[in-house]
Each structure stands twice: as C-alpha cells, then as structure tokens.
Amino acid sequence: MIVAVDSYLRARDGSQEAAAALNDIVAAVSQGHTSFLGLVEQLGPQLTHSDPFARAKGVGVLSSVLLQCPPERIGQNAVNVLVKFYIERLQDQPSVGELLKGLHAILKLDLVTSPDAEQVARSIFAELNVQTYQQTVRHAAFEIFDLLMRKQLPAVRKFGPSFVSDYVQVMDGEKDPRNLLLAFRTVKLIIGTLDYSNHAEDLFGIVFCYFPITFRPPPDDVYGITAEDLKLALRECISATPLFAKYAMPLLIEKLASISGSAKRDAMETLTACAPVYGADALLPHIFKTADDNNIAAALASVNAITLALSSATVSSSSVKSPLETFLELAVKDSIHNFKDPELKYGKLTGKMLVAAASACDPACHHVVNAVVPPILEQCRMQNLPTRQKHLLEILVDFLKAGQDVYGLTSVSAMDLDDDFLNPILSYKDRLFELYIAATAAASEYMPLRRTGIRGLAALLMSRQLLAGQEVEMAINQLNQAIVTDPDPEVRNEAIQALVTFATAKPEVVLATTFPALFHELPEGAGPQDATHVAGILKAILALSATGGLHTRGLQGLLQRLDSVGLVTMFGGSELQYAETLSKTILEIIDEPSLATAPGAAAIDSQDAIPGLAESIIQPVLVKTISASLSEQAVLLIQPRILCVWARILGSVMRVLDATQQQSLLESVIAIFVNDEVERLPGVTRSPQVSFAPLESSTPESQTRLSVLFAAIVCNCRPNVSFGTQDLPAFVDALIVRALRSTDAALAESLAKCAASIINKMKDDAQISAYMQRDIITSLHTAIRDDSPSGHSLRRKSIYICSWIARALIIRSHPAGYQITTEVLRLLDSGEQGTTLPQAGMLCSKAAADAVGIIIHAPEDGSLTRKSFANVKLLHPQRFFGHCVPFLVQGFQHASLVTKNAYLLALSHLLKNVPKAVVSNTLTDLFPLLLFSLSIPDPGLKLATLETLQALLVDSPPAIAPRVSSLIYALLNMAAGPVGAAAGTERDPMNVRIAALKVLGDFPKKFEYAHLFPHKVTVLSRLNVALDDPKRAVRKEASSARNRWYLLLARS
Amino acid sequence: MTDKLLNANPVVYDVGTISNRARRPEDEDESVADPFDAEEIFDLIRHINDPEHPLTLEQLNVTQPELVAVDNDSSHVLVQFTPTIPHCSMATLIGLCIRVRLLRSLPDRFKVDIRVSEGSHQSEHAVNKQLNDKERVAAALENSHLLEVVNQCLLTAVEK
C-alpha cells in the first residue's frame, strides 16, 4: 500500500507507472486492505507539503479514490471530514482542479448533508473566480452545480435569489461548448425550481448572449457536440419561462430580419418554441408598440410562422389541447376586448395579428374565425356609428383575405384545390354579405364605409366557396351601381378595381351585367349632360376592356356610340368633347399592351383578336370620313381634333396587322388617296364631278385634312411591305413636291412624314444614297442655301422637309443624315447675316433650331420609331448629340445676343430628348449655355434647362457639384425675382418659378453639406420672398424647398 | 421614446389620401393672386408626425382644418390644436413642432398664434404662454437635442 502511494507520488503525471500505482491504491481501499482514513494519514505529509504542486498531487490521489471507490468503503464520517477539508483548501490555487474533482465525487456519493452541500456552493461562489481556470476545472465546477441542483435542492433553496445571481457570475463568459451544454441544463433547472424573478433579466442576458449559435465543431472533435445540441439546449432555456418574454421578443423579432439564413431559421424556431410558453400576452405588445411598419410586418410574419409551425405539432394525448389551440386561445382571449373600440390603434393591429394567425393553415383559420368573427358581427349589430362599423368591416375584409390565402381564389380552377376543407367563413357569409351590401349602398354618408363595403364585396367575390350564383349577381349589381352613381372618385375606383379583378376570374358575368349597365350611361346621338360623369364611365370601360376577353364588346359599344354622334352636323363643344373622349378610349383599348402581345389568348373566342378588328374599324372609318369630306358637310367625325385621334387609332391597328394584311390595305389606300379610286370602298357616295385628291394642295381643306389618315397607314407599314408596282423614288419625289407646295401645316407634316418613313425603310444604304442623289434632294439643298429675300418662304419649308428626311436617316445612322444636319446647324446664325431682312433671318434661325427638335424627338404618334417598324439603330441619340454639341458651343460663343437664343433653343430640344448620362459627360462644355439660358426671358428655354438640371441631379450630382454656387443664384433669381427688383418688374411665369424651386429643393438631398453651407443664409432669406408668392402652387414648392434646407442644416 | 407611452392606444382617424382642395381653373392663372387660407396652413401641418406614434397629427385628430384661422389683410394666423389626452405632456412639443414648421414655411409678415384648443388641456394657459413667447421658443431651438426631436417630427411633413 505504502509502496503504491510512494510510487504514484514519484511517477510522472500521466505516465503508465502512475496509472498502475493509482489502480493499486484504489483496489486496496475498495477491497478493504486499507481504510480510507488510513490512506489520508499516509498522505498527510504530502497534503501539507510546501510545494503547491506536490499538495495538488496528494489531493489528486484522494479525489481519484473518492471517484472510484464504493461509497460504503468511505463512510459517512470520512465524508463529513473530507468536505470540510476540501472546502478549506479551495484557496490553494494549484489544487483547485483536483479539489473540485473530489468535491464532485463526494457529492455523487449521496452522503453529503444539506448544510455541507450549502457550504460547498457558498465556498465556490466566495473563493473561486471560476472563469479564470482552465476548461477541465470549469467543467468540474459546472458538474458540481448540476449535481447540487439535482440532488441538494433544499440546500440550494436556502440561498434564496442570491444563488441565481452568483451562478450568473460563474457562467458569465463561458465559451466551451462542453461546459455550455451543462450550464444551459443548470439554467433550465434553476428556472424550473428556484425563485429567480428578481434576476430574470440577468439570467436572460447570460443565456441569450449565445443566440444565435454559430458553433462549428472542429474537424477532429472527439466529444461529438454539434451546433444542433447547443441550439436545442439554448432554446430550452429561452423558452423555459414567460418571464423572459419581454426581453426575448424584441431581440427575436429583430433576429427574424437577419440576413443570415440559419440565424433567421433559428429565431423562427425559437419563437415557435417560445410562443406557447410566453403566450399571446407577450406577442401582442410587440405588434402594438412597434414603431415602424417593418417591425409590424416582421411581427405579423412571426405570428404566421408560429401558427404554421404549431399546427404541425402532434397532440400527445387526446385529452390535452394541442399547442396550436393553446396558443390561439391565448391570442384570442387577450385581444378580443380590443374590438370593443375598433377605431383605437390596437383594434386595427389586433385584427391584423389574428388574421396573420388565421391565414396560416386550415385548423388555425377555423379556430380564429369561429372565435372572433361572431363577436365582431355582434359588435357590428350593436354599433351603428359608421366610423366604428367601418373599422369592424375592415377587419372582416382581412379575414376574408385570410380565407382566400387558405382556401383559394375564385379564379383558381377547382381541380387544383382540395374541397375537403371548408372555409369557416361560409357559416357567416350571409350576414357578411348583408353588411357589405348595406355599407356599399349610397345611403351611407360616410365615404370610407362605402369604400370598405366595396372592398368587402370584392373579397367575397374573389373567395372560393362563398357566394352562390344569385349573390354574385347582386354583388356585381351593387358594384355597377357604385361606379355609376357614387359621388366619390375613390369609391368608384375601388369598385372598378373590384370588377377588374373579378373579370379575370369570371369575365362572362361582368360582360353580361356590368357592360350593359355602363353603356346605358353613355348617351346616343347627342353630347352628354355631364362630361365628367361620362369620363368616369369611360374610364371604367377602359379598365375592364383592358383585362382581356372583354375588349371586343367594349370596342363595339364605343364604336356604336361614336357612330351615333359622328355624323351630326349641328354640334357644340360638348358633342365634340364626347366624340374625342370616345375616340381616345378606343385608342387606349387598342393600345393596351396585354391585348397586343397576346391577341385573343384570354379572349372568350379567338376571333376577337385585334387583327380581326381591322376591317371592322379601318374600313368603316375610311368610308365615313371620305364621304363626309366629299360632301363638304362639316360633320363631327372630320373635325381635326377627332381625325387626329383616329389617325392614331389607324396607326395602332396597322401595327398589329401582319405584312400581307398591311399590303392589301396599303394598296387600296394608295389607290384611293393618290389615284382617286374611291370606288374601291363600297358605300362611299359622291356626286360625279367631285374628285377626291386629299394630297393635293389645291383641293379644299375639308379633303386635305384627311391626309393624316393616309400618313398613319403609310408610316406604320412593316419594312417588307412593298409599295406595289409604283416606281418608289418617283413616288417619294411626288410626296416631297406636294409637301413643298402645300400651305397647310398638317398636310405638309403628313406628306413629309410619309416620305421620310419610306426613305427610312428602304432596303439598304446604297439605295438610300442613290436616292439622295436625285434632283429633288439637290433642289432642297439649293433652297436651303438660298438666302435671297424672295426665297425665304421656300427656304423654311425646305428646312422643314429636310429635317424629317434627316430624322429618317439619322435614326438608321446613315451618313447623309449628318450632312443635312451640318447644313441645317449652319443656318442657326442666319439671324446675323440677314441684315436686309432681319425678320426673315430670325425665322430661318428658329426653323433651324426647330429642325434639331424634329430630328431628335420621337413623334408621339409613333411614326419613325421602332413602334412603327422603322429602322432604328442603337445609340443614335448619343451620336447625334455628339455631332451637334461642338457646333452649338462654338456657335454660341461667337453669336450675338439676338441669335444666342436660336442656339439655346436647339440645345433645349437636344436636352429634352437625349439620355441625361450623355449630357453629364459634356457638362463642362455645355454649362455656360445652360447658365445663360436661365438668365434670358424665354420661359420655354428656362423650363427645358431646369428639367435637364433636375434629371442630372437624379443621375449625376457630382457633375453639377462644382457649379452649385453659380446655379443657386440663378435659381434664386427665378424663384424669388432678382435682388432689389422694383415692385412692378415682370416675374418669371409660375411654372418656371415652380421648376426652379424644385431644383433648389433637391440640392440638400444631393450635395454635401460643405457645398451648400456657404449659401445657407442667402437661400433661406431669399426663399422667404418666394414664401409670399401670389400663387399657392409656388408657395407650396417654396415652403418645401426652404424646409429641406433647414433640415439639411440641422444635420451639422 | 420611453417604454411607457402616455397614451399608448390612441384613436386613429381615417384621413383621405389626397388633398381635399378642389382644383380651380384660376389656380393656373398668373394674374389671379391666391390668398393664404386655412386649408393651405392646414396642409403645412397635417403631416407632422406625433412625437409618440408613427402617426400624423391629422390621423390623431390633433390638428383639424376647422381649428386654423387666417387673416390675410392683417397678416395673422391662429392655429389651435387638441392633445389626445388632457394631461398630455407632449402638448408643448407638438405646439413647438407646429410653430417651427410655420416659422419655416410662412413669410415673415405673418404673426402666428398657436394655442391648445379651449378646454382640451389641463395646463392650457401655461402651454399657450410657452408657445407664444418668442424668446422661449428661440431658447428651445437652441437646445440641439430638442431641435433634433422637432426635425424628426417635421421630416414626414417636408417630404409630402
């Protein structure tokens, strides 16, 4: 025995001899050869040795024996003595590890008395700073606490709450996963058994600081602890008590918004684990008190997630309520009283929360709806205050939407959904339907209530399983009624939206009931009494027709109404306006992108596709307009305003036709308009001596105005449509000659566009170059250069026609286009030369500036753009801009004050039509021009520049930043008038003032504080003048700009 | 914001999404001057945020168009507001926000009086006195923390 002890003490730590000797000692004690106290005696000198490590070794022998010997061999007395001994030695730092091991062993023996156990804990708390020791020591400490919690509860209880705070100290800073697993287990035990209410926050803090767990086990891990183990242990702690709720909820909700997927999932799962424990009490305040919409959304999402997660939790026994029920019951119980005052803030949010829960799954929906809807309905019955009713009904709308989420929309085909699940709202449907119908009825004065009524009907209509055939009809009729009669535009819009949505599900119902009701409101044969009413109805028809499937009937109805007023000769402003709005609505339906891309795809039968409508639209309109113009009756249909819209309609119809259809149409149109073969159109009546020549300048204006229709057909041809047997260049020549001769602006424009469009669509560049050599082009060039007084009218016309041809060439990047452009740009300074006829010179400068506009601007009717199949090269605006800028900058520098305007005008056309990024690249060159344009009286130029500045501010503030100072003063002069201006001085028009203020108001958002700071005092005081502007719209901008400058300065 | 809101669960009023001012043809006419009116002043203050809630003063019915009076000729504006509860300690702050907003948005010829509407606050007199004392308002705005709070409340109004 003594030999064994000696050899152990002499052996090196961890060596084989040491292990063997220890085994001998343990065997001796457990087999009774030596008593335990005998061993202690033998170790005596060692235990009091002066070398601390020798002492530690001695303790180690004892602890190992304690750990391995059967308890009866040690005996109660020895234990009592040993505990005291161990506790006393705790101050001996090097031995602490062995001491704790021994204490752990003793505690395990079940022989320790309660006071001793208490003393153990007390000494550890008092003597040891656990976190300063190595992992094995800390592990032993945690093992001791774990044992104490499990076996010595009475002793621990004597501590009272201080045990918790002391334990928090011990655990604070622990990092080792092995220790943490133990520590978490102890925390859970503490929560389960001790009074920790005063230390809940500390306890929570010490636990939650590990959330979310990001532990990844090292590759050679032998302990087998996974992140999942830790997560579970931690989650059990967090979800152990409702007292944690108020600390955990905000943090968990914040973590829900985390970017890391695993953190998010962890937060979600933890929330789900916590929800049944924390109860709705804890959840609600976070939904109510959240300061911003993002948090509300996150909170609602978590409610939804919790509900969904709980619904999949299985019930362990039939007597116990499922966790889902427990959770929902709590949620409902805690929130239902909020509905008593539905207009309070909580009322709304409660509704939202319950809806979020209900929309999670079928059982939840049943539970919540059955619990909540009846009391809300009861409230509705008792409350007849419209404001309250409105809020309650709004909450019910949300429940209907939750039902849609769970049970599907009307539009989804029945095949895709399971009819085993019944929408719980079905039981309350009748009452709901009644309520919404009543709310919608015009009798209720309160607009938001009517709006909610409409939303309710819309939600009912779109919910599967809810409304039966007759009810659907009633609901639709109510919506129709609202569109037709409701005085409030918001309500009408809501109703239109409801019908549009329903039309995607059941177009036939809308077709059968809504369209007749709407068309009933459109008068026939005369203008409407109330133009705004008709405009509203047309808006509804347009919205519905755009949904597909309904456009045919919409167009038919509109065309029929238009016919009824089109041939009226006695008409006033209201009829003209009516015809124009009807025509514009037709145009918008045809232009609806959803119909053009998928013609007839959603239509009831495929013949309704737009191309099929060509005949029904183009042919009749040509017949009617031509007849009218031949008979020289000033009927409504051929008023220029109406014809202009119809030209657009013909253009749109042309674009959806294919090449063969276009070909035949084009042939007959050329025959009719050029060769007077009106007989091709059956139904046109004319007296024999009258000829139809709308493209000749000699014919009366009533015929030439039809040239816009001709242009609409010609300009929208596909490139492979041929102009028949005609000699194409000669045909174009003829068009140009006619344009040159015409005195009518509309005719000239139509003809020039036609010519330009044909040139643009010529097959190859060589063909174009050949055409550009023809006499007619040469003579145009000569006319442009001719600055003799007699030629100036022809000169301007030539510039006009040339600019159209130049556009045709520039957009397909043909070099000839740039030749013409250069020629035209040279004319910008003709104001200088024409000393004999200054007026004519100025006009020529202006014509040249306008030519730049024609070249770069894409016409609204779509001709000479991609829409009308023109040959358009990428980046042509950039190239053109680059071509023009040097001319403009140089010309501007040398120009006199009078002609500077022409340069600026040309520049303003460019600025309006090229991408702003291009402008910002050349800003250094252009800036003097821009600044100058802000100081001249012409409001058009100022507006163009201000618009450019605004766009530049959005895209590239750095380009402007260095020039801020000079700009600010120019802007202030426009916004508030020049400094010290006399009272009667002419101010800039209001739209210029508004635009200047807008730019000024954008500055604080776009520029560094340092750039603006020097101007702060001036800006604020000068804007004070603008605050007193006579026009309200200007004041509004001024106050907004000034407030922004104030806020900017507050940032300092 | 403190944990305990003074009035955590206020009544939320429905407000129109669009300005209720009817458009008139003369709005575009340069030669017709538009006088300041109550609605214009109300438009300036309706979107100010409440210091406690993410709701506007209009939504809480603190400001109402009927409680704004304008006299163009004598350049005088009177704005009254109604705190949501009579013991609201935020009343002065709300008043200060309105005051600052109008200081920045109205020409300086106007004298602006801001009051708590009669009987709506228990220390009505004190609040009124504070809000209409030029020096005290100026002193309040010297306090950078307070100015920060005010600017925060005004942010929503400016961007409308």
From TrEMBL, chain A:
Annotated InterPro entries: ARM-like, ARM-type_fold, MMS19, MMS19_C, MMS19_N
Sequence ranges assigned to domain MMS19 N-terminal in this UniProt record: 40-287
Subcellular locations according to the entry: Nucleus
Domain MMS19 C-terminal: 537-1003
Keywords linked to the UniProt accession: DNA damage, DNA repair, Nucleus, Repeat
Domain of life per record: Eukaryota
Pfam family, one: MMS19_N
A GO biological process held by the record: protein maturation
GO cellular component: cytosolic [4Fe-4S] assembly targeting complex; nucleus
Protein task: Key component of the cytosolic iron-sulfur protein assembly (CIA) complex, a multiprotein complex that mediates the incorporation of iron-sulfur cluster into apoproteins specifically involved in DNA metabolism and genomic integrity. In the CIA complex, MMS19 acts as an adapter between early-acting CIA components and a subset of cellular target iron-sulfur proteins.
UniProt family annotation: Belongs to the MET18/MMS19 family.
Protein name, as recorded: MMS19 nucleotide excision repair protein
Organism this protein belongs to: Powellomyces hirtus
Taxonomic classification: Eukaryota, Fungi, Fungi incertae sedis, Chytridiomycota, Chytridiomycota incertae sedis
Automatic annotation (TrEMBL), chain B:
GO biological process terms on file: chromosome segregation; protein maturation
Official protein name in the record: MIP18 family-like domain-containing protein
Xref: InterPro entries: FSCA_dom_sf, MIP18, MIP18-like
Pfam family for this entry, one: FeS_assembly_P
SUPFAM superfamilies on file: Fe-S cluster assembly (FSCA) domain-like
Family according to the record: Belongs to the MIP18 family.
Organism: Powellomyces hirtus
Organism superkingdom: Eukaryota
GO cellular component: intracellular protein-containing complex; iron-sulfur cluster assembly complex
